[in-house]
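Lecture 7 notes: from sequence to structure.
We start with the chain below.
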Amino acid sequence: MNLPTIAYLSNQFPSPVEPYVVDEVRELQRRGARVIPSSARRLEKPELCSPEIVAQTLYLQPLRAKVALHALYLCLAKFPLLTPFYRRVLLHGRESPLRRAKALIHTWLGFTTPCC
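Predicted structure tokens for the same chain:
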């Protein structure tokens, strides 16, 4: 069985209030999945967490201009695939404008995480 690559996105990883997530990541890796732990923010005290997990984690901030531009390119290059999503968010969504903007931003940030 060939397991997929999984990008685990969180606001802060590893998180002292969610230690079980590290166990989940390790179990997926043990089963053969490629897991890319990604965190929006760096830890204030990384020494309190597993150095192995901290070293594997991709931190999105500070976001480098080259990565941000490449992610924007990918969002545009994948436009045909993402058209239903863009149409839903921009034209048919009942959510507030702020929530819809967040959906677009999170999608763009998702492209800053390497998948391969």
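Points to note: The chain has five helices and three strands. The first strand starts at residue 5 and ends at 12.
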